[in-house]
Amino acid sequence: MRASLIALAAVSAAFPAVLGGPLAYGVCQTGCNVAAGTCYAAAGFTFGTVLVATAPASIMACNALLGSCMVACAGMAIAPTL
């Protein structure tokens, strides 16, 4: 058992941390866009079809939600994944 653990540790040490962050970042961004689309639908609009100049307060709230979500995802782009 001990030899197996030593071998596993040696093999694991040979590989550096993997930057899986870009994939996590993409998944997070997709989640943000789905949430924004749902928010727009709840407000009675279609995501991506409302002009900012004529947008009601509910759409502006959806846009703020989307922006906050995207900012929260930003750190994932460079986060190491083990």
From TrEMBL:
The reply to whether Signal figures as a keyword in the UniProt entry is yes
Specify the signal sequence span.
1-20
Q: Which UniProt keywords apply?
A: Signal
Kindly provide the name given to this protein in its UniProt entry.
Cysteine-rich protein
From what organism does this protein derive? Answer: Phellinidium pouzarii
